[in-house]
Amino acid sequence: MVCGASVTAARVAVRDATPVRALVEERATVTVDLVVRDDPRLVRSGSGRPATFLVAAESTRITGLDGDRVEARVRMLVLATDPAWRALLPGQRLTAEGRLAAPRGGDLTAAVLWSTRAPVPHGSPPGLQRAAGTLRAGLQEACEPLPDERGGLLPGLVVGDTSQLPDSVREDFLDTGMTHLTAVSGSNVAIVVGAVLLLARWGRAGPWLAAGLCVVALVGFVILVRPSPSVVRAAAMGAIGLAALAVGRPRAALPALAAAVTVLVLVDPELAGDFGFALSVLATGGLLLLAPRWRDALRRRWVPVGVAEALAVPAAAQVACAPVVAGISGTVSLVAVPANLLVAPAIAPATVLGVVAAVLSPLWSTGAEFLAWLASWPAWWLVTVAHYGARAPAGALPWPAGVGGALLLAGLTLALLVAVRRRVVRRLVAVTAVAAVLGALPVRLVAAGWPPAGWVVVACAVGQGDALVLSAGPGRGVVVDAGAEPGLVDRCLRRIGVREVPLLVISHFHHDHVGGVAGVFRGRRVTAVLAPSWSEPAFGRDLVQVAAGSTEMFSAPAGWGYRAGAVELTLIGPPAPMRGTRSDPNNNSLVLLATVNGVRILLTGDAEIEEQQALLDHTPDGGLRAHVVKVAHHGSAYQDPAFLDAVRPLVAVVPVGQENTYGHPDASVLDRLARGGARILRTDLDGDVAVVTGPSGLAVVTRGAEDPTRR
Q1: Which residues, given as ranges, of the chain have pLDDT below 50?
Q2: CA distance readout (Å), 296 to 293, 304, 306, 311, 385
Q3: Residue 44 to residue 81: CA distance in whole angstroms
Q4: For residue 711, is it within any domain?
Q5: Could you give the CA distance from residue 249 to residue 647 in angstroms, rounded to a whole number?
Q6: Pairing of strands 109-115, 75-80
Q7: 475 — alpha (psi -120 to 50), left (phi > 0) or beta?
Q8: In a 3-state reduction of DSSP, which class is residue 268?
Q9: Among the three residues 333, 368, 399, which one is the final residue of a domain in this structure?
Q10: pTM for the full model?
Q11: DSSP state, 388?
């Protein structure tokens, strides 16, 4: 602790050095000599706006416009828009121009460099990085003939490259606790090199020869996935676990694990607060402490050696990591362990065949494609398990988030691991678990808590964005807007059982209303898309058109009507195109008056004062009255008080993101709605909001807030 504190203090002193801090505070335009630390990542793209790349780098020299030079080795994040940044490799030295900005803080990053120009490389990237790039490109080419899901997953399993992974598979892996398989971690290293260990044991190699073969495989794997800091960290964690399994001395590996953690934290103090590092350490600890016992227990029950190890390793890693995952996500997945156990036998074949395909690709492309085709079949099994596991009822249970929740689950896990060493306790735990499943699962299936019976509209908690669903019958729903993230709206629609969308309404083309449109189409039949005639911003319209594909997409004038099941819609705004307003896209939002089972619902998009006043002028008295209103523009201050008074809702729903930086919702707007007698529900505080109707009248049911950023 003393050494770690000292090293961190020294790094912080360098980060906060006066010359660098002064340039950051001035937001100075500078020329910086950099060394790339990791692969560039695409963080934003879309039609009509440039892609933005995030590049982790370390500066060696900073030169201001006046020619003054600051020799400083500090960490920087580069936000760049020139496509030339995408081709950079770790270890590449270059010069870049841009404007400095302050980082968010909380780590060792000294500055953010905003650059719109191409970098000027100095020399070639390191040889190992070039070799890795060749092999990775060869693997991508070998996977091109495969179906999208399997072809996108295989590079993720082998080298952590998920650039071609479909969003649907990504979300399914997330929901079933299998995401670690597509990220380079200690578990991935163990999977790749563990196959070599099994072959060595099958060939009756001695412990030291087996360990040597594993080291060779480990070095080759690090070269293949590129020796970035995260990969080196993962290799160190995986090597310790493999060494323990190879030499048969797991107890001796515990001091090695402790030493490795200490050295890595001293070299890179930021790892002390890194969740990925914590998960790597815990997974390795599970391999050392739990996997050998569980493997031996399975072997005593006549399970073959290879199968026993394939089952014990993922189960031990999952149990060890569960407390941290629960603290991060606020849920405990009930399908994670079964899903990981089911896919365990398929991981090694897929990964090993993929590695061989990558190595073979520069020499024999046809052979590499054949091996990739063979590897695609175990990859198909992973995709299938993730698909059905993500849709399992009661697949995840809510759990206290944060440190408290993690410590609680860790305590319960340790108590259970100690208690089950007694036969009586093992039997009691088994009987209790079976009874709980048999007793609770039918209740969750028959009378699931969500969606509530009699729901007419659900406002999905999708962060800072809109996504609402009108009930059009069993399994059917009219969807109005799609939020900003495909996964969030897809999960909301799955929760309420929507399998068919007779109409998707896009109120306007801002990203927080259309960014998740692909999630609405994910595995669902969408009959038609209603969009505004105002086509700005263009990138939003392009996004909807790409997602819609051959689905009919049309615009309609004010007064247009529509019916699907119990849903009746009337388009009431905008009465006419509006120009020259504070925000023309917002003030040309489609405004709909819906009636579902006798409940009037006003859906206002992001209409602001100008459009609201136009609606008042063109709508007869009482025409805007509604039982439920979706408050416009996330409850912003740009509301006409007379408009709110004319609506006079019983329920006001505000779709808004947690801790957003826009000041939404505005307190004065909420106060006016409350004074008018409305009950106010917010998705940032209440989660998904359902308005239901029954014999006792109108009611509201909430699902509970969940931070979308955790997902």
Answers
A1: 46-48, 440, 443-447, 707-711
A2: 5, 10, 11, 11, 27
A3: 10
A4: no
A5: 73
A6: parallel
A7: left
A8: coil
A9: 399
A10: 0.63
A11: H
